[in-house]
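Lab notebook, bench 4. Continuing the backlog of folding jobs that were queued last week. Each job is logged with the same field layout so the records can be merged later without manual cleanup. Today's entry covers 4Fe-4S binding domain-containing protein, a 514-residue chain. Filled in by technician R.K.

JOB TYPE: sequence-to-structure
TARGET: 4Fe-4S binding domain-containing protein
LENGTH: 514
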Amino acid sequence: MHKIAFIVLTVLVFLSASASRAAPHGTGELHDLSLQSATLFFPNAQKIAPVLNDIPARPVFDSDALIGYLFITDEITPIPAYSGKPISLLVGMSVDGEIRGVKILHHEEPVLVIGVEDRQLQEFIGQYAGINAEQRVRIGAFDRAGYQGVDGITGATITSMVINHSVMRSAKEVLDAVRKHPEEVSAAVQDSLERGAGAAPQEEINGIDFLRENYATVTLLGAALIFLLGILFFQDWLVKKKQRYEYVRTGYLIFTVLYIGLYLGAQLSAVNLFAFAQRLGQTLFWESLLYDVAIFMLWAFVACTILLWGRGVYCGWLCPFGALQELIYKAARKLRLPQFTFPSVVHERLWAIKYFLLIILVGVSLGSMARVAPLLEVEPFKTTFGLLFQREFIYVAYALGLLLIAAFNSRFYCKYLCVLGAALSIFSRFHVFDWLRRRKECGHPCQACAKACPLDAIKPTGEIIDSECHYCLRCQVLYWDEYTCPPLVEKRKRREQRALKQQSGNLIGTTEVR
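JOB STATUS: finished
OUTPUT FIELD FOLLOWS
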């Protein structure tokens, strides 16, 4: 199944990248802007001149007086958004650089298709009216000196940042071009058919700025990732003491849910993979990858660890939804709620569901990311950590239902429905390290680890199924447990018997001396 899925997925990703290269990012509406478009921002507009030479902006006139400019952001600064494609925004700007308004023309953002109400979107873009192009505008920077803060869209952090930078950069470029070539502006006023000249170089915002602004996130999350690497490198020391392992494991899962999931909202998604596939063959806009530093750091960590240990490092330790499921399962065990597992034959068939879902989603995403948005709701991540269950009942019921099932069947969603896990598991086949210890008795006849594995990722013959393993290290705890692992149990019993005989011999010798 994994080989077939890998081949099909590779073909589909190639087609997705090809389709993305073939499809223009611009909306094509720039040359079709009507006077009605201008009156959205300039009620007294009577005429629109042709686009300027080097900057795609149209001068807007009230009779013979120049009153502003009309431009489309992705024609000036095509910044890839969450979907991997730019968001097309129509912006009206006065001659002195004051933004008169913003209108979304086109986008393929899944989070804006489902999950964000139109009211929220209009409230967000409405904040730009009255802001000057020379102001430094950042999401949430209300208390920061020298910045104008705006509220972001809840559950759409990256999209909010892309819209913000698209609007402000485009406006600044148009304003700089106008100031650099005042003679062209004068000519445009005298004759509305006269074209202007190009823009001054726009100062790029270094991606390092985002790291500095998110110093606390980079430090704490970076420390957590380093700590996880320590767990991997010193796993033998960790698992030799069951209680020590349980403390570390449970503590890390709680950290993942509370900090990575709830606080940072850094739940990775299959959308990220589709967006990356859309960018293949294009110039990567590295700054757009840094809009959400936590997401960037986690994906960079996944890219490294999946090649070394497989997908289990992320799925087992850093996935907030997976961690939440496991914590619920642990609590259910403490409460002695009944547990159920599927028979081996049924379990293996159910595995295939997530791979079929992945193939369907990639296939649908070939045409448009917006088209695949409704299907991506198979991931409950946005409902749980992005919108905190503040959305339509059907999505809330779906997410809560999965969490409820997790109380009775460990990581049910991860095992059978996770599209992201399916994609990552395909690449897990090529990992370098194999540090999970096994004994010759594993599977023949011992089944202790196979029964204890929460993912049922150990075959009856004893082999660990790498593509399904979450690297929770539970089998390694049993490997070193001399009260559970049958070979160690036998060794312990023989050792205790020898000690008992020696102790008996000492007692006999003492009695004879007396």
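OBSERVATION: Residues 209-437 form one domain.
SIGNED: R.K.
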